[in-house]
Amino acid sequence: MPKTTPKLQPTSPSTTATPRRVLLKLSGEAFCTVGGFGIDREELRVIAEEIKSARENGAEIAVVVGGGNIIRGAELAKQGDIPQSTADYMGMLGTVINGVALKEMLETVGVPTRLMSAIEIRAVAEPFIRGRALRHLEKGRVVIMAAGTGNPFFTTDSCAALRASELECDLLLKATKVDGVYTADPKKDPTATKYDTLSYAQAIDQRLGVMDLTALAMCEERNIPVLVFDFWQRGNIRRVIDGDESIGTRLS
């Protein structure tokens, strides 16, 4: 049976137990029920309440949203009728829909929020400008970032790594449906073991599917730790920000 990778020691101030500024990467799946489609009101409220709880200790929170619950550009492109660049832009618009919904729900539960888009849609979102985003965070607002990087052929994971770099985040939180990174798919392989910690090199060399290679390389270059955790375990975001190191798998 594979053994759990030994725990790595922090190598820089960015691995502090109580991050000041975090970026939360949410997939489109977080906005709907398991196997569902579109936006489920109850799931949306749960996301908003989790973010609200997590910011109560003063942490600044930025959010990058996916759009797979609305449309999956990569899968659409594979059908052959729509070029991938066009399909990717359609996917970006799906993230804007999720961003608008999350902003309104956060405001409903009393959290000041700003939605910023990499594609200019002034009727519903501010354009993403780094200085403006930093100012919003410093004022205690949650900043939701939609439309990915604004470019085709880049995933929302790559967007999360880019925005975490631009906004000088202490930690990138990647929300998933499992409680960390495993040596294999735990649903298919009963011998799979969970990693407590991983190096970027291990994740890349072993093709563990944590994030796409572009995102991992950027996090490694910028020395941004990544925590892969189970978002559906209520309270996990708050516990991570409060310094609980027992949650998920940390890459550094």
List the helices and strands and how they pair.
Layout (H helix, E strand, L loop, with lengths): L20 E6 L14 H14 L5 E6 L7 H6 L5 H25 L4 E5 L8 E2 L2 H9 L3 E5 L9 H11 L4 E6 L20 E2 L1 H6 L7 H10 L3 E5 L5 H6 L7 E3 L1
Parallel strand pairs: 1-2, 1-6, 2-5, 3-4, 3-5, 6-8, 7-9
Antiparallel strand pairs: 8-9
Helix pairs in contact: 1-3, 5-7
Say which CATH homologous superfamily is assigned.
Acetylglutamate kinase-like
So what's the overall shape? globular
User: Helix-strand pattern, N to C?
Assistant: EHEHHEEHEHEEHHEHE
In the CATH hierarchy, what is the architecture at level 2?
A: 3-Layer(aba) Sandwich
How is the main sheet built?
A: 9 strands, mixed
Tell me what the structure shows:
Helix 1 crosses helix 3 and helix 5 packs parallel to helix 7. It is built from 8 helices and 9 strands. The chain is an alpha/beta fold and 252 residues long. The N terminus is likely disordered. It starts with 20 loop residues before the first strand and ends with a strand. The protein has one domain: Acetylglutamate kinase-like (Carbamate kinase, 3-Layer(aba) Sandwich), CATH 3.40.1160.10. It has a 9-stranded mixed sheet, sandwiched between helices.
